[in-house]
Each structure stands twice: as C-alpha cells, then as structure tokens.
Amino acid sequence: MKVTKIGYIFISLGTIIILGYLIFAIYSFSSNQDGIVCKNMEINLVDKDKITLISQNEIARILESNELNPIGKAYKRVKTEAIEKQLMKNPMIKSVECYKTPSGTIDLIVKQRNPKFIIAGNESFYVDSDRKIIPVSLNYAAYLPVVSGTITHSMATGVIFDFVSYIESDPFWNAQIEQVYVSNDLNIELVPRVGETIISLGKLDNYQQKLENLHTLYTQAFNTIGWNKYKRIDLSYEDQIVCGKKAMDFQHKTFENIQKNDSIVKKL
Fold it and tell me: What is the pLDDT of residues 204-243, one digit of tens each?
C-alpha cells in the first residue's frame, strides 16, 4: 500500500505531537519534583523466582543503615545515583536501576548474580556466570555443581570454570557428573550422580579427548554391563582407560585394561 503525501503529513504531525507530549511531561515532572514526597519504595528482584541471593528486606536494610531510605523524603533530597552506587557494593547484586515516578514511588530494579557452581573446600564460595567470586548466601539453596579440594581463586575462575562449562554444555556428562574433586597434586576426580564409581581424569589437560574416549567406551560396553561394577575408572593414561573392579573381598582385586578401539579385555 502506497502512502500519500497527506498520509506522510499526518504521520509527521502525529510523531511531533507524541514527542512534544513526552518532552512536556518530562519537563513538567522535572520542574515539579520539588513538591513530590516519596511515599513508597518498590524493590523488584527481576530473577527472584530462580535466585534468592539477597532479599527485598535486606536491600531495604542496606539503604536504611546508609541513610538512603527515600520514604518520607522530598524528591529533591532522593539521590538515585547514590542508592545505585551503594547497592552495587553488595557482591550478590549484578545491576541496579533506581528511578522516580510521578506518583511518589521510588522504583528499584535489582538483578542478582547467577551462581554457576560452588567451591567447597578450606574456603566456600560461588563462582557466577561472569567468573566472579561471590560469598555463599544463607538465603540461597540451589542444586549446583560442587567442586571441592585444593582450589585457588584463579583456578576457580580459570581452568575450573572452563571445565565445568564444558561438562554443562555436554548433555551426557551434565546428566552424569555431580561433583569435581581437585587433589593436592592437582589431579581431577569426578563423582557420578549415581553409584560409587570414581572417575580419575588426571591433570586438566586434553580433558575433552579423555571424556570422549570414556563416552565411546560407555556406549560400546558400559551401557549394557554398567560402570557400577568398577570402583575406579582411570583416564589419565594416553589412549587407554584403566578400570578397577570392585573387590569381592579386601584380599583380591582384579583390574582390566581396556585399550581404545580394541574389544579385547586384557587382565593385568
């Protein structure tokens, strides 16, 4: 459908009227702010259905303790930037927007950080999706991957973050692995969600190939016999997987060396 010149004129006039109204409304609100008193403050946690690292009451207490509670104050005395700056000091908060409304309500839009996994060791903390370390929240109890053992902050936000991301991105391993353990010599052990088998990954080098080899073995053999018959599965050797059977008693242990691309099971 072609738009006539008259149509263009009406569209242009409509646009000018709308813009004029918005400019007038903004100007009127700005010029009349001095007469508005804050009657209410609404705190909106945009992701509270998924995360509760900090509560609305805690946010209100932070503002109160720092003399930033806007309720009862004239708008000219309410410093929205100061409110945002103070709340952003809290490690649980990712972003804050604070603005005044003509009705006398201060609106706070708060976005919390998103924990990706939890470190449980000498020090316990979350690592969020932005690789930021945040303290464990007493308000938040969620099912997160657990990484325990000897872990520094740089490891947690570096190689461990990359490894956990890889596990999460793979539907098979994300469904299988519940916990990651880092030993003093930086060897990695994986704890499956079901059973008592320990998967020894060795150092965090070439872990994609190691897990791919184990997945191949799982689909070719373990999917019928199961890996619960093994106490330990060792992936630290090049191009081979060493499986230690669960002993019938503590005096006799049988080990099997399963070569990659080889259907022969060799007794050691």
Answer: 988 999 999 888 888 876 665 666 677 888 888 877 888 8
pTM: 0.74
**pLDDT tens digits, one per residue of 158-191:** 999 999 999 999 999 999 899 999 999 999 999 9
Question: Which domains, and CATH codes, for the chain?
Answer: 35-112 (3.10.20.310), 115-267 (3.40.50.11690)
257 pLDDT higher than 70: no
Give residues with Cβ within 8 angstroms of 86, minimum separation 6.
62, 63, 66, 68
Look up residue 260 and give its two tokens: 């990659």
Cα 24 to chain center, whole Å? 43
